[in-house]
Structure formats: C-alpha cells, structure tokens
Amino acid sequence: MEVKDFQFGDEKDILSLFEITFGRFMRQDVWQWRFQNNPAGKHYIKLMWENDKLVGHYAVSPFYMNIDSGLYQASLSMTTMTHPDYNGRGFFKILATELYKTLHEQYDIKLVMGYPNKNSHYGFIKNLQWKDLAVVHHLVLNTSCLKRSKSDQIFLTNNFRGVHASLLKRISSEFCLSVERSVEYLNWRYVDNPLNKYYIFEYVDEVGLRGFLVVKLYLMLDGTCGLFIMENGIDSENMSLLPIFLSHILSSFSEKISTVNTWLPLFDRRHIYYEKNGFMLGGKPTYWGVRFLDPKFDLLGSDVRNWYYSYGDSDVY
What we know:
Elements lengths: L1 E4 L5 H12 L5 H9 L7 E7 L2 E15 L2 E13 L8 H17 L3 E4 L6 H7 L3 E12 L11 E4 L4 H11 L4 E3 L3 H9 L7 E7 L2 E12 L5 E9 L8 H11 L4 E6 L8 H6 L3 E13 L5 H4 L16
Parallel strand pairs: 4-5, 11-12
Antiparallel strand pairs: 1-2, 2-3, 3-4, 3-8, 5-13, 6-12, 6-13, 7-9, 9-10, 10-11
Organism: Butyricimonas virosa
Protein name: GNAT family N-acetyltransferase
GO molecular function: transferase activity
C-alpha cells in the first residue's frame, strides 16, 4: 500500500471508487467544481493505492475564514472512501493524518471542520482528535401559517455583488469565527454549483439593498418540498422584512412547499425574531466538529458561541 497526493488523471479512479463505495455516480462536473474550480484552492486530496488500484481516498475543500479579525485559510472535511474489499484496515486514519500534516505544514491551513454522520462521528473524535462544537438543530416553520403574496420590492437576481458580501460581512462580524463570504466565494458556492439550483431573492428600495435570502427547494419524504434558507442576508434591524420575504418566495414557486428550514446560531441576535415568526427547533440534528491544526486558535474556536454558521457552510445543502 502506498499513500500519494492527487495527480491529474486520478479523478477517473476517484469517481469509480465513489460508485463502488456508495452505489451511485458522482458527475465529473460536480467533482471539478468542488475540487478543481474552488477559488480558495484545489486538490487537497490523499489517495491510498495498491499498485495501480485505488483503494482509499480522503479530501478536504479549502475556504477562507475570519478568525478573531484575521483572514486565514481553513478547510471543510469532504469525502472519505475505502474500497469495500479493504474495510477495517484503518485507511481513513492513515490518510487523514497524512493530509492534515500536509495542510498544516505546506499550506498553513488553520483548521478542518465538518459535519460527520453517525457512522463517521466516532472515528473523527476518537482517532483524529476532532472536537465536538455542537449538535446543530434546524429552525423549522410550517408554511400553513403564512400568507402567499408578492412584493413589488423583492426581485430575483442571478449573481452576487459587493453589497451582498458586505451585508453578510456585517452580520457575521458579530462572531469571532465565520466563513469569509466574499463575492467570489458566493458566486462559486451558489451560482456556479452544477448540482443544485439556488435562488437569490433581494429586497430593494430607494436606499438600495435592504436584505436578501438565498434559498433552495428540497424534496421531502412526504412528496412536498422544503424551502431551505442557505444564507440569511437580513440584518437584525430589518427583521420585519422576514415575513414579507417568505410570503413572496412561497408565491413564486408552483411546488407545494410545506416547511421553511434554516440554520441560525442560538447566539445570533436574529434568532428570537425567527422564533417570533413561528420557527421552532426541528428536523434531523447534525454533528458539527473541528480539528485545529494551529493550536493558538483552540481556546477561541472550541466555544460554539464564537461561531457564525449557515447551511451554506456544509457540503450537504
């Protein structure tokens, strides 16, 4: 067995291993978007080979992060794969240990964060020195309490501009740690995404942009759709716009939308306004953890009260 860094052409073996491991295809354009076209960096991947056979894989996806008023590079833990014939040999721990060492020493990446599922959570905590930040709950609103009506001041836009990034910066700056939601990042994450369709609704008046929401539709088990708020671009001073946004957005889709869902930190000042508008804790909780590669951020980053987050931080939504 031999651990190697990704080289051009390995993506064919990676996509093949993905199908063998998970029983479904990953489209090549999705892989290229995530691992090759990422504006923060590419190909942070370790591979386990037996001769010319790919038997193990671990990758992270880099992003820029605001930590205590500084801008640093961090990374999101992504796909872990072991060929079924080689399960139980500890490939994941070997690959992750090697990759974290490379990330820290060669790229000065400060941390790896992620949302492990119930099958991988134990391994991240026990074998890779991850720390649990929280079990993240959704805020969920049943749409039966909402009126559907269009607003003349809400519009769909096709891309992000500086005003969107500035608004999210102002909102997230109340926290010590947050993903840097630059214009480049937002357009890559949402507009260029080949797998999911996202909608950017913005409220504009004579002053300019007052707020915006980035949303997607998600097919639920009962055949209805859930509306997922990916980015909450309404600051606390303009939270009266939230029901206007929701009424307009619901009336903009022909699909039957049963719930509105979002992630919002409990310590975000807007949380109580979501509660006031009928949102309640619900949905399937998600593990959220982090491994600090630079120990100087350990104390600050271990306290979830210091973190701003949204659905957009996860690769699932």
